[in-house]
Amino acid sequence: MSIFEYNGSALVAMVGKNCFAIASDRRLGVQLQTIATDFQRISKIHDKLFIGLSGLATDAQTLYQRLVFRHKLYQLREERDMKPETFASLVSALLYEKRFGPYFCQPVIAGLGDGDKPFICTMDSIGAKELAKDFVVAGTASESLYGACESMFKPDMEAEELFETISQALLSSVDRDCLSGWGGHVYVVTPTEVKERILKGRMD
Predict the structure, then answer these.
(1) What Gene3D superfamilies does this protein map onto (predicted)?
(2) Helix ranges (DSSP H) in the chain
(3) What is the pLDDT of residues 102-141, one digit of tens each?
């Protein structure tokens, strides 16, 4: 079994009209044994920027702490929040720096940039960025997420429709992956507000 699959995870970010959504499952497991059913994979960097970390849970928590530290230093020095593109470059550099003993994480970054233009990207464990205009996925359920998102995604969705789409894609995908599941956690971010919702999924 790959070390990336040890804890199981499902992450997806999707773009709408001047908004984005990022969603994850809530299961923390050790291979096929479930340890927790309320694990937090998505973290807020600031009001318009979120990061989800799939992969090995301990590495994800360590990496998140380092990223928060770097972002706070940036805020102190620049007296403003980091743009999503800048933050993606920071994450990429941080991962590449450790390429000979990498963090076993695949980050998904989603944010609103200049003019409230949504930005999403994912990268591998050594920081190779993959940018997308529609959706990005990561984790053990990524294969079924690709299929679900491909068939459900429409451009320029409003916030409520975007929430519905990403939720259906996530729930139908984790049902096809035994290492992720136990409900979902969804953030929908618009220029004016952040909506956080918990999804009830199959609890087996």
Answers:
(1) Glutamine Phosphoribosylpyrophosphate, subunit 1, domain 1
(2) 57-78, 84-97, 142-152, 159-174
(3) 999 999 999 999 988 999 999 999 999 999 999 999 999 9
Candidates 165, 110, 162, 167; CA nearest to 136 is: 110
Strand order in the sheet with 129-132: 42-46, 49-55, 105-112, 118-123, 129-132
Domain 3-199, CATH homologous superfamily name and number: Aminohydrolase, N-terminal nucleophile (Ntn) domain (3.60.20.10)
Instruction: Give the CA angle between residues 42, 48, 49 to the nearest 5°.
Output: 40
Q: What is the token pair recorded at 27?
A: 């299961």
> Residue 77: is it exposed, middle or buried by C-beta count within 10 angstroms (0-12/13-18/19+)?
exposed
Helices 57-78 and 84-97: angle between axes, nearest 10 degrees: 130
Q: Which amino acid is at 23?
A: A
Q: CA–CA separation, 29 vs 35, rounded Å?
A: 5
